[in-house]
Amino acid sequence: MSSLNLDNFRALAERFVSQMLQGNYEMAASQFDNQMKTAIPLPELKKSWQRLTIPAGDLIQTGVLQTAELEGHQIVSVRCQFERATIDVQVVFNSKGRVSGLSIIPSQTEYHPPDYVDDSAFREVEVTVGKGKWSLPGTITIPTGPGPFPGVVLVHGSGPNDRDETLGPNKIFRDIAWGLASKDIAVLRYDKRTLQHASEFTPELLSQLTVQEEVIDDALLAAELLRQTPEIDPKRVYLLGHSLGASVAPRIGQEDPDLAGLVIMAGIIRPLEDTILEQFTYLYSLAGEMTKAQKDTLESLKVKVARAKDPELSIDVPSKELPLGMSASYFLDLRNHPTDKIIKNLEMPLLILQGGRDYQVSPTIDFKMWKEELESREDVTCQLFPGLNHLFIEGEGKSTPTEYGVEGHVSEEVIETIINWLTEG
How many whole angstroms from its chain centre is CA 27? Predict the structure, then answer.
């Protein structure tokens, strides 16, 4: 248990933001945990902060906006009121008071629909996915007109995502839902179980959590809900997964053979622990030569990855001995349902999309493996978008975590590719 109380965390967040406002980036960054030091190197921290605060004008006032607790972490939001903008700084602390997450979000991040959205072409209906303890709030975006329409269920990546898969100012699931609905395709999106019911996930429950409870069960319920919606053609209900949702989409298809097809956006096909190690190695490379602490962290991670791969791995292995502190149950469940094996017997059309600038899912390894595993299948379409990152947003140069804090939209080319595949298939 942490000896820090809520007032301590509030004070730590205010001190951190004050240091940033004073331009004392080194002092602020010294409070990062090892993962954050890798994810946001000092030059990136300074650049992303200045990009938002310099145009905002003079500082008027600051104050703690809200606090929250999630899975043993304290989240403190500090609002900075500037002359021309308001910026919310969300600081995530681990139990030891180290900064383990950071979001710098202009609070004026009103959603600006991309040009491909025609908001007169659809309406939105609030729904509930599932029943009882784990029920989830969701939204069906329904095209105007008589129907029945094809429908798509959107399945999130890892972490406690909302129905828009909001990341900073970006809402990629809203882009997709509104983009498809503008062209007569209905879309269901919903808040993820680990977001909506965060307080229910006790340490004991987390130690038993697998992707089945985190993702799959709710996706299956969502697909069934969409089939039962009067405006939807039940024979044309598809599933679109992004990141983790894409990786387990074939498993969802295996459990629900009535799905008309799967759209896989940035899905890994290899063991999760392999890509975790690759991501850390990539992030370390951004800051140039590794520090001793970074080298030590990487060596420690290699040991944890080897532990996850151990044929003798059992559910009794403590999560602290495994990558990212995830449970042995989680890794064992993924091991027992390998994506590359599942797709060999999956009899439904697949559309596999990949960004060429994605550092979280490798275009040269994962995407290549999807293509090679499925090259004999005529009902599989694979497409690479060279200029897009993990969010399928356009960019240049090496992709970094701070890039996700810049407002953008899912590429229109991606939206058109999905629409064409859904309507021509």
Answer: 29
Measured CA to CA, the distance from residue 105 to residue 79 in angstroms comes to: 10
Q: What is the CATH number of domain 6-106?
A: 3.10.450.590
Give the burial class of 157: count Cβ atoms within 10 A of its Cβ; 0-12 exposed, 13-18 middle, 19 or more buried: buried
User: In degrees rounded to 5, what are phi and psi of residue 360?
Assistant: -90, -30
Tell me the pLDDT tens digit for each residue of 12-28.
Answer: 999 999 999 999 999 99
Q: What is the pLDDT of residues 209-231, one digit of tens each?
A: 899 999 999 999 999 999 999 99
Q: Using N-to-C axis directions, what is the helix angle for 272-286 and 292-309, rounded to 10°? A: 170
Q: Is 362 a catalytic residue?
A: no
Nearest to 395 by CA among 382, 415, 416, 410: 410
254-269 confidence digits (pLDDT tens)? 999 999 999 999 999 9
Cα 358 to the center of its chain, rounded Å: 13
Distance CA 262, CA 274 (A): 24
Q: Is 73 a catalytic residue?
A: no
The first and second tokens of residue 252, run together, are: 């969802």
CATH number at 122-266+338-424: 3.40.50.1820
Active-site choice (390, 399, 409, 411):
390
- Per annotation, catalytic residue among 329, 358, 362, 399: 358
Domain coordinates of the chain in residue numbers? Answer: 6-106, 122-266+338-424, 273-325
Residue in 48, 182, 243, 327 annotated catalytic: 243
pLDDT tens string 314-348: 999 998 899 888 899 999 999 999 999 999 999 99
Task: Indicate the SS3 state at residue 8.
Answer: helix
